[in-house]
Structure formats: C-alpha cells, structure tokens
Amino acid sequence: MLRSFLLTLALLWGASGAIAAEVAPDVLARTTTQEVLEILKQDKDIQNGNSSKVYQLVEAKILPNFDFNRMTQLAVGKHWPRATPKQKQSLVTEFRNLLVRTYSSSLTQFSGQTIDFKPMTVRAEDADVIVRSEIRQPNGQPIPIDYNMYKTAFGWKVYDVSIDGVSLVNNYRASFSSTIRQSGIDGLIQQLAAQSARGGKPAPRPGS
Predict the structure, then answer these.
(1) Three-state SS across 110-154?
(2) d(C-alpha 154, C-alpha 164), whole Å
(3) Starting at the edge strand that comes first in sequence, how are the strands of the sheet with 128-136 ordered?
(4) Which of 75, 82, 117, 153 has a CA that sits 20 to 30 A from residue 90's CA?
(5) In 3D, which of 48, 46, 63 has the Cα closest to residue 97?
(6) Residue 172: pLDDT band by 50, 70, 90 thresholds?
(7) Taking Cα atoms as reference points, which of 193, 157, 196 lies closest to residue 74?
(8) DSSP 8-class letter at 24
(9) How far apart are CA 158 and CA 129, in angstroms?
(10) 122-156 pLDDT, tens per residue?
C-alpha cells in the first residue's frame, strides 16, 4: 500500500495544459505538488474516502500532463505494432483507467508526507529530462521518485515514473508481455478492464 500511495503522489501534480506549456518541468512539478498536498490536508471529504471527490481530483490533475498514449506504447513494448488502431485505443483507455482507479484509493492515506525536488538545469534545447524528487515521511527513510518527461507542442508531459529505482513502465511491460503471449492483445485489454472494474491493483514487482 505504501508504494501505491507514493505513486498516487507522483501522479497527482499536473496543472492545466495552458500553464504547463509555459513552465519548466521541475517548476511545474514543485509548484503543483504543493497545491495537491494542500488540497489533501484541507479536504476532509477526501480524507474520509469520498470516492467521487477523489476521482475528480485524479482526473483533473493526472490527465493534462501525463502522456498515456506513450506510456501505454512503452508498456506494451514490442507487441504494440501488432495491435490494430482500435486495440491501441482500447489499451490506452484501459491502462489509464486502471492507473487512475488503482491509485485513487490510496489518496486517503496521506498523513504528513512532504516532497522535495532536486535542483536541475533545463536548457532551451532539452527535449527529454528526468525530474528527481524524494518523498519524506515521518520516521522513515526518504524514497526517491523520478519523472521522465519530454517536451511537446502542448508542454512537458510525463511518460514514466520511477519509485525507488523501479520504473512503472518497465514493471508493467513484463506483466503485459506475459498476458499477450498467453491470451493475445484482446486478452490484455480484457484483463485491464477487469482489474479496473475491481478497483485495480498495484503493478507487479519485478520477478513476481
């Protein structure tokens, strides 16, 4: 559950597309994280597990700044070119839904954590960067969270998140590949939809 909570925080610092297009990736991450943490501290409904408000917050903050198309393509890996356009659309939709539902449920676990972002320099020619941060928790060791981001015409977008050195995309890739080998691409789509309907489950650990 701790890893689920950490990834929720990692996913929840998106700002509006208009703002994101004008702000450096590290500044965007830092300032909007502060905004989200303030919401978590003050919103009693979210703290009490109001699922409707949790989903509203997740939808508002994740979708503008995460490139789920690229995330899904990377997670599906070598199997992506074999998918039809309809299958690709379904994969993106179901993977996004799974992530949103999986980590929405852990928002209510927020209790005193803070996020520190590491200094970085972004040059005008940079198109792909890693924004590094640490989750600091009471009576616990800091846990590093890195965001892989790339520049688009609509601002900086996240396409992978690594928690304590473990990549979200790579973690899912092994599981997805196994499912596709056994049940095909449609089988993976059905599995993602079923997991999302159950409320989702964390990405499998490497080797599990």
Answers:
(1) CCCCEEEECCCCCCCCCCEEEEEEEEECCCCCCEEEEEEEEEECC
(2) 29
(3) 114-117, 128-136, 143-152, 155-163, 166-167
(4) 153
(5) 63
(6) very high
(7) 157
(8) -
(9) 10
(10) 888 999 999 999 888 787 788 888 999 999 888 88
Q: Which tokens in the block code for residue 12?
A: 């929840």
Tokens 């993976």, located at residue: 188
Question: Which residues is 163 bridged to in the sheet?
Answer: 145, 166
> Taking a C-beta distance cutoff of 8 angstroms, is the pair 133, 149 a contact?
no
Q: Domain coordinates of the chain in residue numbers?
A: 2-197
DSSP 204: P
CATH fold of the domain at 2-197: Nuclear Transport Factor 2; Chain: A, (3.10.450)
**Tens of pLDDT, residues 179-188:** 999 999 999 9
CB atoms within 10 A of CB 129: 19
Cβ atoms within 10 Å, residue 175: 16
- In the chain, the amino acid numbered 148 is N
